[in-house]
Amino acid sequence: MSIEYIRKTYGVPAKIGGRVKFIDDRGTNFFCTIKSALNGRLRVLVDDRVPNYRGRMILHPTYNVEYLK
Fold first, then answer.
1. CA 60, CA 12: separation in Å to the nearest integer?
2. What pLDDT, on the 0 to 100 scale, is given for residue 49?
3. Which end of the chain is more exposed for a tag (fewer CB within 10 A), N or C?
4. Model confidence pLDDT, tens digit, residues 11-68
5. Total Cβ atoms within 10 A of residue 33
6. What string of H, E and C letters represents the secondary structure of 15-48?
């Protein structure tokens, strides 16, 4: 399932290279760049701004995700 599928299904402005903010259950903000899509989920690369974490995450397109401009 592609980024286009995610845009149409969830009505979000997802695109490769797009920026998102994810807030986890503890309230930590993760600023990320969308790298690809996998099975209707976003594969993102987390910025260096999160202390002690730099890596990839797989996110649901609407759960605690804010699309940045």
1. 11
2. 67
3. C
4. 999 999 999 999 999 998 899 999 999 999 999 999 876 666 778 999 999 999 999 9
5. 14
6. CCCCEEEEECCCCCEEEEEEEEEECCEEEEEECC
Do 64 and 12 contact (CB within 8 A), yes or no? Answer: no
The count of structural domains within the chain is 1
CATH number at residue 13: 2.30.30
* Secondary structure class of 9 (helix, strand, coil): helix
Q: Which pair of tokens denotes residue 38? A: 């996998």
C-beta separation of 18 from 69 below 8 A: no
Q: Cα(22)–Cα(42) distance, rounded to whole angstroms?
A: 11
- Please, which pLDDT band fits residue 6 given cuts at 50, 70 and 90? very high
Residue with tokens 């649901």: 60
- Residue 16 corresponds to which tokens in the numbers above? 């490769």
